[in-house]
Amino acid sequence: MYNELEEWLDDILGDEIPSEVEGFIFNLYEDEGEGWSMSLVGTGSFEPEDDDYEWAGDDVTDFGTEDGLLIWEKDADWEEILEDAKSVLHMYLEKGTYSEVLKSRRGVGVGFVDGDVEILYSR
Predict the structure, then answer these.
(1) In whole numbers, what is the pLDDT of the chain averaged over residues?
(2) What's the rounded Cα separation, in Å, for the pair 31 and 104?
(3) Count of CA atoms in the C-beta half-sphere (13 A) of 95
């Protein structure tokens, strides 16, 4: 899955990021059957200490990912998918081509669109 994520993110993050973006949220979705998908949202605020995650809905841009989701199939429950996503996103934050773009803002989180956000990076 890492190679697909890397290609997807390289296409997105190679473009200029709006200056209003304070943080990045990777939203996960459960699709039909064994399908899963991910979008990327740039938020206008990023407050990791806010347990209500209201800031996660402060979208500035979806970078076109609502129409270009990263999609994969895996027979797994949502907890395993979240762990998989965290693992590959941590790898990208460590060695991805545009990892510094993600780290240039206040933080990066991941979670299912209707659930809690797990913070992957915060400065």
Answers:
(1) 92
(2) 31
(3) 6
- Report how far residue 13's alpha carbon sits from residue 31's, in angstroms, rounded to the nearest whole number: 25
In angstroms, the CA 26 to CA 110 distance is 5
Domain boundaries, the chain: 2-15+24-122
- Tell me the whole-structure pTM to 2 decimals: 0.92
- Burial class of residue 18 in the structure, from the number of CB atoms within 10 Å of its CB (0-12 exposed, 13-18 middle, 19+ buried): exposed
Largest CA distance in the chain: 39
* Residue 123 one-letter amino acid: R
Place of tokens 């500035």: 60
CB 41 within 8 A of CB 109: no
